[in-house]
Structures are given as C-alpha cells and as structure tokens.
Amino acid sequence: MPRMRFSLRDRSLAVAGVVLVVSLVFMSACSSSHKPTTASTSTSTSTSTSLATSSSTSTSSSTSAPTVATGGISCSGTGTVTFDPPLQKSGTSPVETVTITIAASTCTTSGSNVSKVTGATSTLTIHLASNACRVLGTSNSASGPPTWTARWTPSSVANSMVTFSGHRIVTNSAGDVGFVFPNSGGTASVTGSFAGSDHGAGSSASSYTDMTEKGVLSTCRSSGLPSLTGTGMVTLS
User: How high does pLDDT run on average in the chain?
Assistant: First the structure.
C-alpha cells in the first residue's frame, strides 16, 4: 500500500484544527456550567425575599387589635337558663349557680363606628342561696353584681363587659317567667364596645322562658329543673 505523506505545513494545519476544536469544547462546557449557577442564585434570592414579605404581611395581619365599637346596639335571639345543680322541690344544696346565655342572631347598631353586627353570644353567671324551687320567685338575690360578657360577630369587634346591680324575676304578657336585668331602680355600666356616651347606664338584658310560672314550679317540684329555654334580648346604650 502506498504511504500518504503530509508536508510540514499540512501537519501544522491539522494540529491547529485539533487545538481549535478542543478550545471550543472547553469554552462551551465552561459557559454552560456557569449559567445555571447564576439562575439558581437569582431564584433563591427572589424566593427568600418573597417569603420574608409574606411573613411580614402575616405578622401584621395577626396583630390587628379588635375595634372598640362606639354608640349602642340591640340584639335578640334565643335564651337559655341553666341551673347547677338542678332546682328541686325542697333543695339539697346551699349554693345554686344560674347561667343565662343569649345567642343573638339579629342585631342593630345605633350611632356607632361599626355599621353591621351579625350576631352575639352573651353569658351571665349568678349565684343563688339554694337550689330549691322557691328561688324562682326571689328577685335580686344574686351574690355580687351580675356581669355579662358579650362576644360579637364578627370577632373584629371588641367584647363588651356589662355589669348590673341586680336582677328581678317577672312574667311577660303571656305569663312566661323571665329574668330581667338590672333590678328595679338598679344600675348598669359597660366597658369595651357599645358603652355609648354614658358608659352604658341605659343598658338592659332579659331572658324569658317558654313556660308560665305555674308550669315552671310544677316541673321543678315533680322531676327537678335543670334548664329553661325561651327568648333573649340585650340592649347596650
């Protein structure tokens, strides 16, 4: 087979071609390995900044204080009166805890910086001298001034604390037994929302059962009385 020969000039070109190819490959590899690093760093920085902003916004929202509502409000709904221990004919306990809860679903504000309240839960606890049925005919026998706690919906409205000087037990036009606050000639005061311009002096609350006095006493004496249900109303002004 005949031998192929290259002149020195041809060999130089061949070597130069090899060097050129190697250089291109090397530069390409370096270039491609450098770009992802830059993109990754940029993405990481952007993500960190976004998370920091999100965290800052979340902290700011969660620390917003409830609004103390001005003016007055009137709410109506269902009322529940719970006796612990249950009332009985003769009574077996020298201490009786009465819890009155009004779950209001209709509320109207007046002269307030809060235009809409969609509901409220008001709770009052009083202590009577006995769990005998006869305490239902005793007014203003609670120990200490009764204090209501009113929680509003939405929760962005600050709670109200309502203190009454006492209570009275009355019947309405249908003859149903009810707890009314304050007692005759008594006083009321409000701190927190809906204290009005006179610290809630005109405030009142009531919870009327769905039973007449005769029906309540009859049930109490025969099987004991753990609770009563009916309607409730709270007015703060």
Answer: 80
Q: Are the C-beta atoms of residues 203 and 75 closer than 8 Å to each other?
A: no
- C-alpha 206/C-alpha 179 separation (Å) is 6
3-class SS at 25? helix
Query: Which amino acid does the sequence have at 54?
Result: S
Provide φ and ψ at 32, rounded to 5°: -70, -30
- The DSSP code for 202 is T
Domain boundaries, the chain: 8-64, 72-236
Burial of residue 48 (number of CB atoms within 10 Å: 0-12, 13-18, 19+): exposed
Read off the pLDDT band of 135 (50, 70, 90): confident
Please count the CA atoms within 13 angstroms of the CA of 118 that sit on its side-chain side. 4
pLDDT of residue 127: 85
Query: C-alpha angle 13/19/25, rounded to 5°?
Result: 135
pLDDT: is 230 or 8 the higher one?
230
Q: Provide CB contacts within 8 A for 105, sequence distance 6+.
A: 76, 77, 78, 118, 119
Q: How far apart are CA 189 and CA 45, in angstroms?
A: 56
| Choice among 132-141, 167-176, 209-218 with the minimum mean pLDDT | 132-141
Q: Which helix (H) or strand (E) holds 208?
A: strand 204-212
What mean pLDDT is predicted for residues 57-70?
73
